[in-house]
Amino acid sequence: MAYAVTxxxxxxxxxxxxRHYVFGKKKFPRFLLVIGGIAGLLPDIDxxxxxxxxxxxxxxxxxHGQFTHSIIFPLIFLTVGIIYYYHSNNxxxxxxxxxxxxxxxxxxxxxxxxxxxxxxxxxxxxxxxIKTAFCPQWNLRDYAPGLDALILIAxxxxxxxxxxxxxxx
Length: 169
Ligand SMILES: [Zn+2]
Known about the structure:
Layout: H1 4-23, H2 31-39, H3 46-57, H4 72-86, H5 91-117, H6 144-161
Helix pairs in contact: 1-2, 1-5, 1-6, 2-5, 4-5
The structure holds zinc ion.
């Protein structure tokens, strides 16, 4: 698995690039970046759950990558977002919720290839019992701290070039 910080940074940077180049600031309020960043880390809820389970049962289980790292969760959030988007009793409010579900879906989805690159796991298609073996074994784990820094620096340079650093302060 990648570091927690990497998951958050990658989700925020990718969503911000979409905000910048695809949707525009007005259609993509900044709070969505925060939600997307947190969603980028959500699949790792299975790590503290493993700790709690082990603490209570004196086991040595590791649930990481077993259930929450399935593509089914981003698809559920995407579906809920689409339902909100097209359910138009109160259009404005529903669109906001649609956006929230869309960024949760995106943040969650971005977690999966990252963990895949950092070591690989086989449960993308849970609860279907199909094992997947397409994760490359690049051993990126050794470079994890440097990778965080590189992504962050590249993003800061990008923001500075566009004079947008002040947006975040
Ligand atoms: Zn993970």
